[in-house]
Structure to design on (1464 residues):
């Protein structure tokens, strides 16, 4: 294994069919028009010295090392900023150029510390490399002149340092912050010799607008911006390509290693999803993998009030299998079930659902996607015929109008948000549909054309109103609809949507969005060129989540915005492998590949391969399991990597269900909230130990490669296989790759997928089969997967959860950048420096009438429960709406959320809860109970003395 | 006609020597004497040693008095200056003052003559005739006329204006801009300011014509904050031009629109470089952009943009009115037309001298300037601003023409001529060139950002006699790095004053005159 070093071509690739031929140092080369001379040289293998140029950034021309001579041109132009021309003759090396480059380098080094041997960048420093390349031998200016050597180092960021003494002011960090990340937190302050990099207005990094994406650190050619982990450990000696395990963007990373120790995670330039970019979570927040809280030994106990007892794997598996079997004997085959995790690999998920179907012999398998994107699967299947987003991420670079609905990409999908912002800065128009003023509404050099600030729970009304305008104002793409969609369904839908009740004017009172704003947005989307819709859980987590997904599909079809680059309808998946876990047959009614369990042919195929008769009736969904548990008919559960007790709605009901079970098996990294109610704890593996695949929001199957052995000794798929086997159904694989082979053999959209192919191509987007051997970046080109697109009627039905005098405010929830979901991982990293507690955002008007000031402790009460949080008084939320995150268990955000859920999929309505907020001087009863339980139910017995 | 018309300049140079007080004193004196006097606040005639230069309009000519102080006013009234009466400050008919009479004023023909804020006065003196012609012409014909004139960028670079306009005119795109570089930051230069304060409609007219020629409907004047009077005059002139229909949605009802506004700089010399100016106009940090892309193709906000100096635009109305050939008939070689030279420094008669190219430095310094103010011999002259070369007396007969100067390692630049007497320390001047570069460097490119500071240090070592020869060699290398390696002309031209000082005045650097020649 070696350290992967990507070639740096100096300037970005240009995409045009127009090609230009020139001669560099006597060698001919043909490149796309607009390519820089520097890049053309690099294509020939000629490295022109450079410092300010790097191929992720537009050329800048400041370092003056890359000067070349061009026949017939005056002077010595910089090769990074000079585009190629046909017939150009370039010289990159001669005595004059060498003298110039040495002259420049001599100036650089006259203001640079001479501590190479003890410098953290030693061995990975472009300045050092260039000094070598140009043959600098002395600095005749001496070192006594004016300099920056005493500049103070900024160590405020938990992950990297900024040492201005080492800065060569190449502006790569500033440009990366602008061009790559789009945050514009960095600038150059002062001018001339006093020029220096500054975070915000001369603040330290931690206090600045910096979002710690790491783009600047990566762009820095010296040790000026340097990972603290590299300062601590030194340079890595090998790297392993793998995939980040946080959100559904699925960024590719190089895990840079010393032995089995991670030195740093560096985003991989050839990663299809991220193309070299990252966010604070993937780039830096991986330390949880070796956190002291990590459980490394299986543990069991008879009662949840007992302390945990550490045992060996055999004992834990035997204990679990025996009890599961006993439960089935006593309460019936259907009294147990399993939950798969969107945090785990496709292979790990596949074996869990196989265990449930073949070994437990029922279909009681569900997944945490139930509570996030199940309506996406349903809605897109109904309208387009496939349960997935339509585009690859790159597609957004060709969009002209972008609608973001119920998603907060800059916080929750930051790397994709950076792509989107780049396109918006180029002039694409943005429509944001969200009750809250998310950052995208107004962020540097980006401003939404329309922000439809609707009342929570009125998504469907707004989407209907948009469609109404398009249909009644004659903006329908007639040709597209006639050719691509079911005409009868369209006619029916068209007359439904044209009804006055769906007009923006009629719905204005319900939605709170001015009709004229809705009309303008509809016209923009319908007529502004390529229209693309991106959405998140603000769409799905509603009682009409599935209706809304179909409403958006209608909107996309009626404007002809499905089936080519730049358009589409795209869920921004919350978890790294939501797409994959759904694909893998995690739902109680579907086999892998979304095929109903009642389909005899499909069932027969699985029976033949699995050598086991399979149940044809769908099994229980998570809420059904919990209800059944409370009723006493469901008694045992295996839970893979999901923290039901923190993440699912109505916590009290969840914990009652768990408490009613006789066996709860938690397979996880940490003793999470659910583990407080468990009898068996099977330690899981972090992504750094996993071998397998994740499928991201763009259906991209990415390899996850282990950089170290499982710290607890057993991979998760092996653990599951051993449990299934102990239950009496032998399941064995020699490797994760064999599991993928079984997936490919049984699932039509995965037929062409294998680890070999993924290793060869980097990644593929399903469907990947004989029809599309290298995958499918854009879906529904030419025709929909279901044949004709189907318009669905989307009657707006208000949620039963209403505000009234007792509960006058609507609570909605979301995520923030630095923390991830229930926070099990990010809370165990320095990311908590940015977000050490959840707060409740409340509008100044609502705060004032309640006597609430910023920072006050307030109690939030719903019809279900109560909790307390500190208030953040802000006009980011409109009057009547309050907002919180749910990253910290003590917050008990789900103590107050209701059990209302999507009519089609049971996805909980997290986004709408009527609450009252009042000042408080103590934490809630639930929080007291929680604190007590933290101690009582997570105890681990002391190990017996040897 | 009742009463007299008296001209008292409101030009900043005149104000700085008391013209405001003089104007007030004349008004007060007139009131107290019951005289009916109309005071016109004109621009400056450019004879700065005569400011405040008070002129009185007689039936057939104007007579001048200067330099007038408020204490002179009562005496002037006593002497009957309102009817041209003789006084010790009498200068006779203004047009006969040799300094003016010897000039060939085209660009400055109206400056100091008219009321700067009177459109009527402007048109009465031939103003807007060029625009009227341009409105009847096809854009390509306007461009051709400018090309035929041989006009080259008066900001200093000397790029043919016709070619620039042609490029913008032919560039695809609906939105184009006309940007006027009025960030006149070179020490010793003041011609732009004089036009903007003394004849603002001339600049407006030139820019409207540029808009018609290229299809640009929007113009911006980037005016340095150090010119508050020019800013005020330009803004008022633009308002008047707007009200009178010269600017707006339809220029004089032609159906072709042109809007114009003033944007104020923030004190950075570097924003006088066109790409930095564009960055600054976009609201960004004033920093050089690499070229290509050329501003003509991707300029302001990425759109095709004409960037010209005030004097370039100001030359255009004449060219359109009288024809490119009439302008090209003046000058010499490839340096055609006239250049407003600005004589400053240690000089007896500093001021604005507009002459066709081809005259010599000696004429400027001796005939016009009358030698140094100190009375000592002239030792060196810096031509073309702080980045121009220092020339010794032996080169004073060089014809003022772009190519002749370039051949000698010098430049005409924006036409600034700064004179030094024999007390000047040329090593200190060379040091100053680097110090200036260090202060004004935008900091983008390495040679200029670090090299300017190192240059100061190297010259200080030379001055202190520390390893002088070795440091002079290093200085040579540094100058080469700056000249060939810098991103823009600031770093690229800083070696010019430095190396010309070393070359022509080696003795000031501890070298004998003989060794320099070698």
């Amino acid at each position: 294994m070696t350290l992967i070093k990507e070639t740096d071509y100096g300037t970005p690739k240009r995409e045009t069919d127009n090609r230009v031929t020139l001669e560099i140092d006597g060698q001919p080369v043909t490149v796309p028009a607009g390519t820089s001379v520097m890049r053309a040289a690099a294509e020939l293998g000629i490295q022109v010295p450079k410092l300010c140029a790097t191929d992720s950034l537009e050329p800048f021309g400041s370092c003056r090392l890359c000067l070349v001579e061009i026949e017939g041109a005056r002077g010595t132009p910089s090769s990074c900023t000079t585009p190629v021309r046909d017939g150009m003759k370039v010289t990159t090396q001669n005595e004059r150029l060498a003298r110039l480059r040495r002259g420049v380098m001599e100036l650089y080094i006259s203001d640079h510390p001479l501590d190479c041997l003890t410098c953290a960048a030693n061995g990975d420093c472009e300045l050092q490399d260039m000094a070598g390349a140009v043959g600098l031998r002395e600095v005749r200016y001496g070192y006594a002149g004016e300099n920056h050597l005493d500049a103070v180092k900024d160590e405020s960021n938990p992950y990297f340092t900024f040492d201005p003494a080492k800065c060569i002011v190449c502006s790569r960090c500033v440009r990366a912050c602008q061009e790559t990340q789009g945050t514009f937190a960095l600038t150059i302050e002062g001018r001339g010799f006093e020029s220096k990099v500054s975070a915000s207005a001369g603040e330290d990094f931690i206090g600045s607008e910096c979002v710690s994406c790491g783009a600047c650190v990566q762009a820095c050619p010296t040790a000026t911006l340097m990972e603290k982990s590299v300062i601590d450990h030194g340079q890595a000696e090998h790297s392993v390509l793998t995939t980040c395990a946080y959100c559904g963007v699925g960024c590719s990373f190089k895990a840079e290693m010393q032995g089995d120790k991670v030195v740093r995670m560096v985003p991989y330039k050839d990663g299809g999803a991220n193309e070299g970019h990252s966010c604070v979570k993937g780039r830096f927040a991986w330390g949880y993998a070796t956190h002291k809280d990590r459980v490394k030994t299986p543990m069991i106990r008879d009662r949840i009030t007992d302390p945990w007892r550490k045992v060996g794997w055999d004992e834990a598996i035997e204990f679990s299998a025996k009890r599961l079997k006993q439960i089935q004997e006593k309460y019936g085959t259907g009294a147990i079930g399993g939950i798969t995790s969107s945090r785990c690999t496709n292979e790990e998920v596949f074996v869990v659902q196989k265990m449930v179907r073949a070994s437990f012999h029922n279909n009681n398998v569900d997944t945490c996607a139930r509570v996030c994107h199940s309506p996406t699967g349903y809605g897109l299947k109904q309208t387009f015929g496939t349960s997935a987003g339509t585009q690859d991420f790159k597609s957004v670079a060709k969009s002209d109008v972008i609608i973001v609905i119920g998603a907060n990409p800059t916080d929750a999908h930051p790397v994709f948000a950076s792509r989107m912002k780049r396109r918006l800065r180029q002039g694409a128009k943005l429509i944001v549909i969200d009750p809250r003023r998310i950052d995208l509404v107004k962020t540097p050099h980006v401003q939404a054309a329309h922000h439809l600030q609707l009342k929570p729970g009125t998504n469907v009304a707004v989407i209907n109103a948009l469609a109404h305008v398009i249909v009644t104002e004659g903006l329908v793409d007639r040709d597209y609809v006639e050719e691509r969609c079911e005409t009868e369904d369209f006619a029916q839908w068209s007359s439904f949507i044209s009804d006055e009740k769906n007009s923006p004017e009629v719905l204005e009172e319900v939605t709170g969005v001015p009709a004229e704003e809705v009309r303008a947005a509809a016209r923009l989307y319908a007529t502004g060129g390529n229209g693309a819709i991106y959405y998140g859980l603000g769409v799905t987590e509603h009682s009409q989540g599935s209706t809304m997904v179909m409403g958006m599909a209608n909107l996309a079809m009626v404007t002809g915005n499905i089936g080519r680059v730049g358009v589409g309808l795209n869920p921004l998946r919350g978890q790294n492998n939501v797409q994959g876990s759904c694909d893998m047959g995690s739902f109680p009614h579907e086999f892998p590949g979304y095929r109903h369990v009642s389909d005899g042919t499909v069932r027969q195929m699985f029976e033949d391969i699995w050598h086991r008769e399979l149940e044809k009736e769908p099994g229980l969904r998570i809420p059904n399991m919990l209800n059944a548990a409370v009723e006493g008919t469901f008694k045992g559960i295996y839970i893979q990597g999901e923290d039901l007790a923190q993440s699912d709605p109505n916590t009290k009901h969840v914990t009652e269900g768990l408490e009613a079970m006789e066996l709860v098996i938690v397979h996880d990294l940490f003793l999470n909230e659910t583990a407080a109610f468990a009898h068996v704890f099977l330690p899981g593996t972090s992504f750094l130990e996993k071998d397998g695949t994740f499928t991201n929001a763009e259906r991209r199957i990415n390899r996850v490669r282990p950089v170290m052995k499982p710290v607890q000794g057993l991979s998760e798929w092996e653990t599951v296989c051993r449990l299934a086997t102990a239950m009496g159904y032998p399941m064995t694989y020699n490797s994760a790759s064999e599991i993928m082979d079984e997936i490919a053999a049984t699932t039509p959209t995965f037929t062409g997928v294998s680890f070999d192919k993924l290793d060869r191509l980097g990644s593929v987007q399903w469907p990947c089969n004989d029809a599309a051997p290298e995958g499918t970046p854009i879906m529904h080109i030419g025709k929909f997967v279901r044949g004709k697109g189907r318009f669905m009627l989307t009657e707006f039905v208000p949620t039963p959860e209403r505000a009234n005098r007792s509960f006058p405010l609507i609570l909605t929830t979301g995520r923030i950048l630095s923390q991830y979901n229930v926070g099990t991982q990010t809370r165990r990293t320095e990311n908590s420096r940015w977000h050490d507690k959840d707060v409740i955002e409340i509008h100044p008007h609502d705060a004032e009438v309640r006597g609430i000031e910023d920072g006050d402790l307030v109690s939030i009460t719903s019809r279900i429960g109560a909790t307390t949080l500190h208030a953040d008084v802000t006009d980011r939320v409109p009057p009547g709406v309050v907002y919180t995150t749910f990253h910290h268990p003590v917050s008990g955000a789900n103590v107050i959320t209701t059990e209302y859920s999507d009519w089609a999929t049971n996805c909980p309505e997290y986004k709408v809860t009527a609450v009252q907020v009042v000042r408080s001087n103590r934490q809630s009863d639930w929080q007291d109970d929680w604190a007590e339980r933290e101690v009582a139910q997570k105890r681990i017995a002391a190990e017996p003395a040897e | 006609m009742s009463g007299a018309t008296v001209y008292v300049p409101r030009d900043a140079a005149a104000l700085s020597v008391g013209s405001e007080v003089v104007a007030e004193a004349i008004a007060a004196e007139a009131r107290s004497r019951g005289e009916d006097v109309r005071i016109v606040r004109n621009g400056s005639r450019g004879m700065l040693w005569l400011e405040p230069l008070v002129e009185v309009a007689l039936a057939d000519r104007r007579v001048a008095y200067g330099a007038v102080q408020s204490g002179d006013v009562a005496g002037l009234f006593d002497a009957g200056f309102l009817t041209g009466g003789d006084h010790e400050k009498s200068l006779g008919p203004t047009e006969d003052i040799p300094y003016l009479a010897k000039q060939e004023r085209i660009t400055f023909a109206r400056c100091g003559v008219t009321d700067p804020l009177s459109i009527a006065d402007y048109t009465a003196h031939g103003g807007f005739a060029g625009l009227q012609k341009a409105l009847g012409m096809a854009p390509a014909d306007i461009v051709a006329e400018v090309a035929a004139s041989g006009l080259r960028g008066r900001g200093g670079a000397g790029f043919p204006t016709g070619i620039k306009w042609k490029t913008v005119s032919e560039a695809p795109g609906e939105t184009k801009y006309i940007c006027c570089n009025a960030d006149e930051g070179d020490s010793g230069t003041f011609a732009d300011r004089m036009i903007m304060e003394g004849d603002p409609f001339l600049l407006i007219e030139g820019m409207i014509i540029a808009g018609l020629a290229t299809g640009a409907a929007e113009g911006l004047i980037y005016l340095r904050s150090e010119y508050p009077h020019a800013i005020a005059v330009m803004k008022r002139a633009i308002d008047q031009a707007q009200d009178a229909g010269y600017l707006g949605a339809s220029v004089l009802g032609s159906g072709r629109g042109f809007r114009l506004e003033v944007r104020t700089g923030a004190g950075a010399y570097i924003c006088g470089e066109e790409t930095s100016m564009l960055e600054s106009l976009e609201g960004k940090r004033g920093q050089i952009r690499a070229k290509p892309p050329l501003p003509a193709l991707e300029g302001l906000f990425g759109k095709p943009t004409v960037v010209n100096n005030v004097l370039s635009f100001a030359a255009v109305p004449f060219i359109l009115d009288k024809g490119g050939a009439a302008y090209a008939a003046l000058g010499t070689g490839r340096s055609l037309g006239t250049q407003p030279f600005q004589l400053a420094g240690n000089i007896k008669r500093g001021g604005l001298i507009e002459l066709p190219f081809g005259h010599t430095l000696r004429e400027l310094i001796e005939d016009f300037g009358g030698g140094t103010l100190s009375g000592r011999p002239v030792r060196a002259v810096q031509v073309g601003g702080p980045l121009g070369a220092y020339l010794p007396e032996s080169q004073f007969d060089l014809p003022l023409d772009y190519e002749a100067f370039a051949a000698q390692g010098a430049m005409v630049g924006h036409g600034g001529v700064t004179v030094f007497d024999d007390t000047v320390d040329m090593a200190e001047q060379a040091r100053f060139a680097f110090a200036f570069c260090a202060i004004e460097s935008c900091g983008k490119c390495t040679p200029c950002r670090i090299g300017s500071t190192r240059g100061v240090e190297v010259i200080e070592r030379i001055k202190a006699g520390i390893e002088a020869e070795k440091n002079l060699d290093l200085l040579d290398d540094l100058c080469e790095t700056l000249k060939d390696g810098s991103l823009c002309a600031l770093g690229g031209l800083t070696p010019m004053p430095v190396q010309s000082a070393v070359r022509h005045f080696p003795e000031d650097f501890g070298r004998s005159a003989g060794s320099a020649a070698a």
